[in-house]
Design a protein that fits this description.
The protein is an alpha+beta fold. The protein folds into three domains: 2-88, no CATH class; 118-129 and 243-278; 134-237, Chitinase A, domain 3. It has helices at residues 2-15, 40-47, 56-79, 86-111, 118-128, 149-163, 168-179, 183-190, 199-202, 204-212, 245-278; strands at residues 29-33, 36-39, 138-146, 194-195, 222-224, 227-237. It has a four-stranded antiparallel beta sheet with strand order 4-3-6-5, sandwiched between helices. It has a two-stranded antiparallel ribbon with strand order 1-2. Helix 7 runs antiparallel to helix 8. It is flat, with a radius of gyration of 24 Å.
């Protein structure tokens, strides 16, 4: 449960500011607490930030539950007059400043969404390859998650048959489309290497099974988080190995994009600081 909550934190934090104030519903909403509405569009946007492979039905229920809890507690706090307390007012003011700063940073990044080029990623990889040795095992997996033990067993038979052919990837995609509760997520998950620790973000039981399987092995059908799963370890790369670029391309792209944006943000903050100093709005002693 704790692992799933950590995986849901990005969506919960994104929803923290959603559905505030008096809103009119057009009928398309996921939850309502008094006059506050969580629209389906806001919920869908929040769920987009969840890790690939996380069960979407369970995630939706838990994110909605967290939104409802926060609204109920906040409304009760207002009813009890807590907003008039000095310490609460100070924290609200701090929160407002933090939200405004974050909103400005988001707008700045949207306006300066410069992504690293393939050449920049390749150059960074070539220059730092020895320092990019894997710090933990990386896995390529096929994870079939279904709503019944019977369908999971049928899916496992298809997975076993696929491994004996040269078309395993294509047959896996067909198997996922036929049996998986989230075919797109299952196919995307199988198309990349991921750190072994990332399995815990999907499901702790899945992570335990992953550690016990050798490459080429397919697990028995097992139940976890209200669903039935079959796990296949396609490949495992040991820690300390110098990776190939495709294994970590996405991580390098994210790293370089963050570095670029942080550099531009630092320049923007320095400009604001210079302007504030020149017109007397900033004084540091």
């Amino acid at each position: 449960m704790i692992t799933r909550l950590y995986a849901l934190l990005p969506a919960i934090l994104l929803l923290a500011g959603c559905g505030g104030g008096n809103q009119k519903s057009d009928g398309e909403f996921a939850a309502r607490v008094g006059s506050e509405i969580l629209s389906t569009a806001e919920l869908d946007e929040a769920l987009e930030v969840l890790p690939v492979g996380l069960d979407s039905v369970t995630a939706r229920q838990q994110v909605i539950e967290q939104w409802v809890h926060s609204r109920l507690l906040a409304q009760e706090a207002r009813r009890q007059g807590l907003t008039s307390q000095e310490d609460v007012q100070r924290q609200l003011a701090d929160s407002e400043r933090a939200v405004l700063a974050a909103a400005l940073i988001d707008r700045f990044f949207e306006a300066n969404a410069e992504e690293p080029t393939d050449e920049e990623i390749r150059s960074y990889f070539d220059a730092n390859r020895q320092r990019l040795a894997l710090r933990e095992p990386y896995l390529q997996i096929r994870l079939l998650t279904t709503d019944s033990a019977e369908r999971a067993q049928l899916g496992k038979v298809a997975m076993i048959q696929a491994t004996s052919t040269p078309f395993a990837d294509s047959l896996w995609a067909m198997t996922a489309e036929e049996f998986a509760t989230d075919p797109g997520g299952a196919i995307a998950l199988a198309n990349r290497f991921l750190p072994e620790s990332r399995l815990r973000g999907l499901d702790e039981t899945v992570a335990q099974r992953g550690r016990s399987l050798a490459p080429g092995q397919i697990s028995e059908v097992f139940e976890s988080s209200g669903h039935h799963h079959v796990l296949e370890i396609v490949s495992r790369v040991s820690a300390g190995v110098t990776p190939d670029l495709p294994w970590i391309r996405e991580e390098l792209r994210q790293r370089l994009a963050i570095e670029k944006r942080n550099t531009m943000l630092a320049q923007q903050v320095q400009q604001l600081k210079n302007e504030a100093e020149s017109d007397g709005r900033l004084e540091i002693r």
